[in-house]
Amino acid sequence: MSSLRDHLDDLARDPGHDVRIDVEAAWSSGQRRRAGRRMRTAAFGVAAVAIAATSLPLASEVTSMPSSADGDAQVASHYPQRLDYVYRDSSLPADSGPLAGVVQRSHEDFFGSWAVSPGGRMWRIEDVYGESVSISPDGVHLVYLKGKNAADANLAITDQTTGHVTRFDEISLGATDAQHPEPRERYFHSDQMPAFWNAGSSAVFLQLGDYRARRDTVAAGVLGTDGSMTIIRNSRDLPSGSQPVGWFSTTTVGFVKETKSAPRVMEVDVRTGRVTRTFALHDPEPFVSQWYASLSPDGNEIMTRNESEGSQPFRFFSARGSGAGSLRTKMPVPSDLSGPCQPTWTSTDVYLPTDSNTGDNGSVLYRVNGGHPIVADPRLGAGCSVWAARALEGGPERTLGGLLFGTDSTWLSWHWRELSAALAALLAVGLGVGAFRIRRR
Amino acid sequence: MNTGVRQDFESWVHARSQTLARSAYLLTGDVHLAEDLVQETLGRVAQHWDRVLRKGSPNAYAHQVMNNLAIDGWRRRSRRLYEVTAPEAVDGRSVPDSPVERVALRQALLRLTPKQRAVLVLRFYEDYTEVQTAHLLGCSTSTVKSQTRHALQRLRDLAPDVLAEFDDRPEVALP
C-alpha cells in the first residue's frame, strides 16, 4: 500500500458492496420531506406574520385595522377602546389628522396633555400652556393657550388636518412682569376655563376678561376657526360672573349665573350680543360648577352640578319651551370622576371623564347611560380627558388590543405586546438556528 | 415532480451508489450504519433534487450532507451507537480473510472523532482539496488543515504498522 487512499479503498471496497441502497425509498422519503418542509415553512410564515402583527404596536404604538368609515378622513370617526402604554414619546404633528381626544397625564416623571388618534396613538402636545385643551366635535380643531410659558402664551386654534394655526394675539393668560405691569394683550383667558364648540366645529365659545374695560366688562368671546372673534359684553341682563355653558343654536349661546336663590340661564344672540331669553333652574342648589354646567348639542338640556359638595349629583334640566328650567333627572357622581374636567356631549349620550389612577378598572371615560368605553394603561397616569363627539358616536376603532381584550384592565391586557415581542424574538432566534441547521445539511 | 426528474435522480444514484456506500462505510465503520447513512443522505438529496441539479453539483451536495450527518451524530440519537468492535458479520457471514492491516485501520478510524474521519475521507478518499473540504464541511481551511494533521497523527499512533510508510500527500485538485 503506497498511499492512504489505497488503504481506505481496500478497507471500504468489500463492505461497500454489501451496503444496500433503496432508490425508491430514498425518493419517497425526499418527497415526504419536501412536502413536510413546505408545510413547516407555511406554518412558520403564518406564525411570523401573526406575531409580527401582534408586535407591531411596540413600534407604531397602535395596531389599527381598516374601518368601514375611514373614507371620511376629515372627521374623527372612531375612538380607541384602549390607550396603551407609550414606549416612544413623540410630539403632536401639526397635520396629524382628526383626533379622537386629548388626555392629561400626570406622573412623577411627566405631566401634560397628549392628543389621541382614533386608533389610540398618543402624541404629546408640546406647546400647551396650562391644563385646558378643548377638542372640536369633529376632532379636527384644538383650542388652547399656545406657548411655552405664561408670558408668550396666546390662545390659538389648530387645524389638525391642514396644520394651520390660527393665533388670537389679543387673548392671553394676562401675565405681567416688572417691565410690563399691564398685560400687553387686551383679553384674558384662564387656562382653567372650559371651552364650548358649536355643533359644526366652526367656532368655540369661551369665557374672556377685558383688562381695559371700565364699564362694559367682557363676558365671553366666540372665536371662529377662520380667525374671526366676536366679543360678548356684560350688561344688565348679562351680569358679571355669568359663565358660558354652550350653544343653544347656531347663533345663540347660553350663560348661567349663580344667584342667592336659584341659578339663572341666559340665551344670548351672538350677532347682537343681546339676551333673548332667560329662565331660572328649579334647583335648590344655587352653586353651579364651571366645569360641569353645559348645554346639550341641540340646546334642549342643561346639565349642572354643585361642585362645592362632592356627593351632590349631576342634574339635568329642560332648556326649551314652557318647561325650561324644570328638573328632568339626576345622576349620581361616579366615584372615580376626574375633575375638574369637561363632560362630552354626543347626540345620544353624556360622557364624564374618570381618573384611571383612582378606579381599579382603568377607565378614563364613563358613559352616563352605562359603561366605561375607554380604558388606559395604569402606567400612563391618565386623568382628565376630553373627546370629540363624532369619535364617540362612531364607536370603537377596531384594534387588535380591543378585539382581544375589549375594555379589560388586567395585567395581561396591558402587557400582551411585550409578551408578543418576546415571543417574536424567540421565534426569530429559532428560525435563525433552524435555518443554520438546514444550511448545514 | 415529473418522471424525467425522478429518472435523473435514479440514474445518478446508480452511478454514485458505490462511491457513497464506501464513503459511508469509512465514516461509520459499520455496514448497517452505512446503509442508514446513505439512505438518509439520498433522501435529503432527493428532497432538494431540483435545486441540486440546477446547481450541477449533486456529488458535492451528497458528500456535504453525508459528512455533516455523520459529524452531527445523526445516529447518536437513535438506538445504535458507534462501537469499536471486531469485524462484524455481514448477512450472517464473517468478513472473509480480513488482513490484519485492514482491521487495524478500521479500528483506528473508529477511534477518530467524526469530524476527523470526515476530513480524512474527503481529503484522502474523495480527493477533495483543502478548500473544497472546508466548503463542504462548513469550516475554515485552517480547521481542515489542523483536523487533518491531528487525524493523521492519531492514525499513525493507533495503526503504526499500516501507515508507517505513508506521508502527507500534496494538495490534489478535484478530478
TrEMBL record, chain A:
Keywords: Membrane, Transmembrane, Transmembrane helix. The chain crosses the membrane at residues 41-59, 419-438. SUPFAM superfamilies: DPP6 N-terminal domain-like. It comes from Nocardioides jejuensis. This is Uncharacterized protein. It comes from the Bacteria.
